[in-house]
Amino acid sequence: MDSILFRWFRSPVKSRRAAFYVCFTTTAVIALADWFINISLGLLYCIPMLLVAAHLKTGEIVEVAFIYTCLRESLGAFAWQVDVVPRVITAFVAFSVVGLFSREINRRKKNAEAHAQELAEQIARCEAYERQLLSIVEGSPAPNLIVNSAGRVMMANQSAHHLLRCPDHSLPGQLIDAYLPGLQALRETSRVHRLVRTLIECTGQRLGGEVFLAHVWVSSFGTPDAAGLNVVIFDATEQLRAREEVSLEALATGAHVIMSAFWHEIHNLCAAMRLSVNSLGRRPGVADAEELAALNSLMTGLERLTASGFRPETGLSFDVASLRAVLDHLRIVIDPWFKESGITVRWYEPPDYLLIRADHHGLLQVCLNLARNASRALEPLERKEFSVITTVEGDHVLVRFHNTGAPISEPDQLFRPFHSSAGGTGLGLYVSRAIVRSFGGDLRYEPVNDGCRFTVVLERAALPFINQEVRALAEDPRVAS
Questions:
Q1: Which residues in 310-405 belong to E strands, given as ranges?
Q2: What is the C-alpha to C-alpha distance for residues 478 and 481, in angstroms, rounded to an integer?
Q3: CA–CA separation, 68 vs 66, rounded Å?
Q4: Closest to 69 in 3D by CA, of 39, 50, 52, 94
Q5: According to CATH, where is 3.30.565.10 located in the chain?
Q6: Fewer CB within 10 A of the terminal residue: the chain, N end or C end?
């Protein structure tokens, strides 16, 4: 009904001035026709009223209705004669109602058109945003899932299907618990009056039954009673494998160094015992004793055992590492420790992107050991300062670890394993120096006037097999950052 009324009462005149011109012309034509024709044409005055009412105010509509009433009565067959008052009132009310009704219809039509246009624009914007979001999700290399409160997948991108080994577009509608069982417990406990944003590590399962280590970033949306989950999955299987391999290699290296230190001490003891036994053998009456022969036999077997077990690491490693990356990882690890202890840390960064001949994880362990020793030494002091200074001297890179603690009273005993003055087992510095020496470097103590300083000497890596463009790119500080 509204659309019919809109079509019947819509004003074809767009401007106020044009509306008055049309109204005046139409009124003049109807008045002339009413003057020459004996039949009353007063009803036709509703036509210009319908045309012009959309551009008039309420008072103006009343004025125009009064003018049309006067024209109708003046040009009628019984102009201002019998029953003039009821006739005038009826005409005035009719013209006023027609004008007000026409204006209201046009006002509602304009409001409806504006609302429809705004709604269409909002729908277009929503569709554009939806297309953008879908393109972002579908084009994301990270597997992304949208899960409802019942645990069923509402949306999954192509990466998620590839990770879970599912056919394309087959995940929506399936239960996610079959692929990520860890989400079931989270979903059951996530019905709280707050949003959930967390990272969980769980075991995932692909469609064929293959398991993998999954790092899952989860965020909730919706009401607490019907909260959905936005799930981003990362397959950390390769990282787990690499981490375990590196840990196993580091454990084997550390064990080898420790056992080398142990057999080294046993070898020294065997040498001292051999001197004592040789001295006893030169005494009269002792050389031919069976006990001395048995002792010689035991010592010979022990020396053979130490000779087979004592294999110091002297070979050079040809691994190439980034010194800046090692120091960045060191900073990430030790900054919270030192901040809690109130220790001021100063970092003097490498002058450029230095490549060194070293193992990344081994060198990081050495730096952590030196930093931990400095933290223990600075704990009881009032002045707590720790500095990491990197300099380049020829083909070597020197990383100095300086702290404001007390100088070492017996520096000769620092790198001896199992020495009595060590706070622990006495293997930390010995193992650290052995690790650094394993890739051609050295760890030494440098006496200074203010504090204590250890210096790690490393060989700068030369890469003759790469061209000048690649070398310039590797030494660009922007690439290193």
A1: 320-322, 344-348, 355-357, 385-393, 396-403
A2: 5
A3: 5
A4: 94
A5: 320-480
A6: N
Which of 3.30.565.10, 3.40.50.150, 3.90.1150.10, 3.40.50.2000 is the CATH number of 320-480? 3.30.565.10
Give the pTM. Answer: 0.56
| Burial of residue 257, with CB atoms counted within 10 A of its CB: 0-12 exposed, 13-18 middle, 19 or more buried | buried
Contacts of 109 (CB under 8 A, 6+ apart): 6, 10
Q: Which amino acid is at 232?
A: V
User: In sequence order, which ranges of 140-219 are alpha helices (DSSP H)?
Assistant: 158-163, 182-189
| CATH no. for 144-235 | 3.30.450.20
Residue 455 CB neighbour total at 10 angstroms: 17
CA distance 380 to 202: 42
Question: Which H/E stretch holds residue 435?
Answer: helix 428-438
Contacts of 462 (CB under 8 A, 6+ apart): 395
Task: Read off the DSSP letter of residue 407.
Answer: P
Burial class (CB in 10 A: 0-12, 13-18, 19+), 234: middle
The two beta strands, 385-393 and 344-348, are parallel
Q: What is the pLDDT of residues 300-310, one digit of tens each?
A: 777 777 766 55
Helices 2-9 and 84-139: crossing angle in degrees, nearest 10, is 120
Beta-bridge partners for 388: 347, 401
Give start-end residues of each CATH 3.30.450.20 domain in the chain: 144-235
